[in-house]
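Pasting two entries for a bug report.
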Amino acid sequence: MLRQIEPNAIDVFVNVASFQEMPDVAVDAYFSDIDRVTSGAFYILQSALPNTKDGMTGAYPVRATWKEAFRRPCRHLPDYFEAMYLTR
């Protein structure tokens, strides 16, 4: 359904703990859609560890055009991080 959303229609996109269950190719596809539909900010809270069983390296494909507002370890979840990127 994400591909049906108009470009820049979302002010803030949030993803919590789902990308670590996907292979890198699927995560990259999501990041492309997030870049297309988000006109403000993207918040992410994810595992900082790779998930080799599911094909996730732990390297999230942040777009070069995004500005990092913050990236830090998550206080209440060991081995997780949270970050906010300004997409436009």
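Entry 2 (this is the one that rendered wrong in the viewer):
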Amino acid sequence: MAVTLPYAFDTGSVSKLILKGICVLAGVVVIPGMIKFLVIAPNPVAAFGIACIGGMLIHFGYVVVKQLCGATGTITKQELLIKPNKFLGMASKEPEGRFALDQFYGLLVKRIAFAGNRYSPHERVLLMGKENTPNILIARTRGGAGITLGRELAALLNFPIEERIAPY
């Protein structure tokens, strides 16, 4: 896998998958449940329970959007252009805009560890920001691909690279 510039990335797949699951669950449980317990066989207690489930799903979806990382962007030799992912009008916590590459000092590859010394099969690759510049997640990878990606991208950008074990 040879990395070239410009390098385009999209790190929102995990968040989008969770949010799609929430929408499916709402479509299968909450909407039919509300129709049944409000229209077909009125039962205010059951309708209230289903409404509570719907409220919890909405809250969980909001937390997922606001807490999980996810953005699309492009890295060139001079700059990083980034846009947070959006789902149903809500944007993720990632920054938006253009950042000159001199605002970053290197790349970090986090190998995700479970309890003990076991590793999960994935890594996170981050562009590390200098003072007042956020760290940007640029890839979620599996099976050591993040280490290769990080090394190749660091060489292209003339950045140092750090590999670290991080807790799940």
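Dev reply: Rendering is fixed now. As a check, the viewer should reflect this: The longest strand covers residues 119-129.
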